[in-house]
Specification:
Number of domains: 2
Strand order of the largest sheet: 1-2
Bound molecules: NADPH dihydro-nicotinamide-adenine-dinucleotide phosphate
Number of helices: 21
Largest sheet: 2 strands, antiparallel
Radius of gyration: 23 Å
Number of strands: 6
Structural class: mainly alpha
Order of helices and strands: HHHHHEEHHHHEEHHHHHHHHEEHHHH
Helix content: 55-70%
Strand content: 5-15%
Length: 458
């Protein structure tokens, strides 16, 4: 029995699962309950245990620390932080509805009103793409206010890091509940909803594909704005805190700021491309995205910068050069493989991939309304080396964030481990969906490109 057995032509439909089995429900429940605790645990480890992930558990197990003493280390709630966060989200909403001006300045940048991919329900929605503009305005204002006018310290985010944790969690959970209720009572596009008969799974994975409130597309906004715009500001704040506490800015902190800055800028420069990724094209908007965007992304994707505030690692110039080169290689693989797919999907056979016309498999598939449509799978360039080289590049880059922090602690390696699990799981999830969407055409692609992430290995 191979992986394609049992798939009929009539299965060429896609989207998130219709049926949630016990395994799916149990996994959702486990993630729902443990990940919020993990974020608080990492906060306590950083601020009270010198970034050791083992010491708190060890002290509890050995009886040196009672559970109530441990819980007393949680940050307090602060109305000031709540106002700061709500002000930030409101400001980002304001920026998200502004018309885009950047595409007028840079003709190669795709901004303004852009159409997304065709949804399983057969819709093609329009998005206001102006993320680069929002990022630039936010950073300009932050830098001017903090460094030029001195209205607040650039360490402001680091200073409120603990107290912000409560409000971002409140926002993440409220948003997920709102999305769940909205999907039943006032869905934006009913034909693109999915119900699994499990309340837990529907709450976790989401019911609506593209929930909207007025001009705001909730998924594009929360996936791409308050958290990702803040990512680089958080790193600047951590770098400022390192300088304020230790009187030095280490090369490791500069590397982390550089790598993650590149990643974020690439995301906004290519925001139109983001409309065709799994996040926007396939994932429904539930707790996983709502809470993940509000809490997990800003808190767990920035662990290296936080670590370096407490441990100002200075790398030898040889090792720093190695990390820089390896990280840039990863970024290049990540960006160029994403660009290749984007170019081919947009410009059809006119695109040139590694100096040659692209090799493509033309596939037909069926949307929920029964319409037969066509699409192309690229089988040359990076997409002919392995089926997910964009993930491989991303993993190399994220390994370099961690390598920049040295080898003494697990703490800065958590993001790399998490991303490895996420992308391996995503790879399998995506391939399963592509198999159902494209049937035999996907089989043909897998025969031509047999490896997923690492050529000759897997
Ligand atoms: P992809 O951009 O690889 O999108 C996968 C989709 O692309 C498939 O569902 C299919 O969609 C299409 N596709 C698959 N194979 C081909 C092919 N050979 N030719 C053309 N189209 C193909 O994946 P993601 O959306 O998951 O990721 C986008 C980027 O974001 C990646 O670089 C990833 O590393 C990064 N990422 C980062 C995360 C983070 O937390 N840092 C999390 C997730 C992703 P279709 O239905 O259109 O055919």
């Amino acid at each position: 029995m191979n992986q394609y057995d049992g798939i009929k032509d009539s299965d060429n439909r896609w989207g998130r699962a219709w049926n949630a089995d016990t395994y799916k429900v149990a996994t959702s429940l486990l993630i729902l309950t443990t990940t919020p605790l993990m974020v608080f645990y990492f906060y306590i480890s950083a601020f009270h245990f010198d970034c050791s992930l083992f010491l708190p558990i060890q002290q509890i197990v050995e009886g040196q620390l009672t559970l109530s003493e441990f819980l007393a280390l949680l940050p307090p709630f602060s109305w000031g932080s709540a106002l700061l966060f709500l002000g930030w989200v409101s400001f980002q909403i304001g920026l998200a509805i502004l018309p885009d001006g950047i595409h007028r300045l840079f003709p190669t940048y795709k901004g303004g009103s852009i159409l997304g991919s065709i949804t399983p329900g057969g819709l093609r929605l329009s998005y206001n793409i102006n993320g680069l503009q929002a990022w630039l305005i936010s950073h300009l204002l932050f830098l001017l206010a903090a460094f030029w006018f001195g209205w607040f310290s650039p360490t402001i985010i680091f200073d409120h890091w603990g107290t912000l944790l409560w409000i971002v969690n409140g926002m993440g959970f409220s948003l997920a509940i709102f999305a769940y209720v909205k999907a039943y009572w006032f869905p934006s596009f009913p034909q693109d909803r999915k119900f699994s008969r499990s309340v837990v799974y529907d709450f976790f994975m989401g019911i609506e594909l593209n929930p909207r409130v007025g001009p705001i597309d909730l998924k594009l906004f929360f996936n791409g704005r308050p958290g990702i715009v803040a990512w680089t500001l958080i790193n600047i704040s951590f770098a400022s805190a390192q300088y304020a506490i230790h009187g030095t800015l280490t090369n490791s902190m500069l590397l982390v700021n550089l790598f993650q800055g590149l990643y974020v800028l690439y995301f906004f420069w290519k925001e139109a491309w983001y409309l065709n990724t799994i996040d926007i094209h396939h994932d429904h908007f539930g707790w996983m995205l709502a809470w993940g965007d509000c809490v997990w992304l800003p808190y767990m994707y920035t662990l290296q910068g936080l670590f370096l505030v407490f441990h100002p690692v200075d790398l030898s110039w040889q090792f720093a050069t190695f990390v820089l080169s390896f990280g840039l290689l990863g970024f290049w693989i990540f960006a160029s493989s994403n660009n290749q797919k984007d170019r081919v999907r947009k410009s059809d056979s006119q695109a040139v991939i590694w100096g040659r016309p692209p090799e493509m498999i033309t596939c037909s598939y069926v949307t929920q309304d029964g319409t037969v449509r066509q699409n192309r799978l690229l089988a040359s360039g990076w997409w002919g080396v392995a089926r997910h080289m964009n993930y491989t590049g991303d993993l190399i880059l994220s390994l370099c964030y961690s390598l920049a922090c040295g080898f003494d602690y697990m703490f800065p390696y958590f993001y790399f481990l998490f991303l490895s699990v996420l992308l391996v799981h995503r790879c399998l999830r995506d391939e399963d969906r592509c198999r159902h969407k494209y049937g035999n055409y996907w089989r043909e692609y897998c025969d031509r490109v047999p490896y997923r992430l690492i050529p000759k290995v897997w």
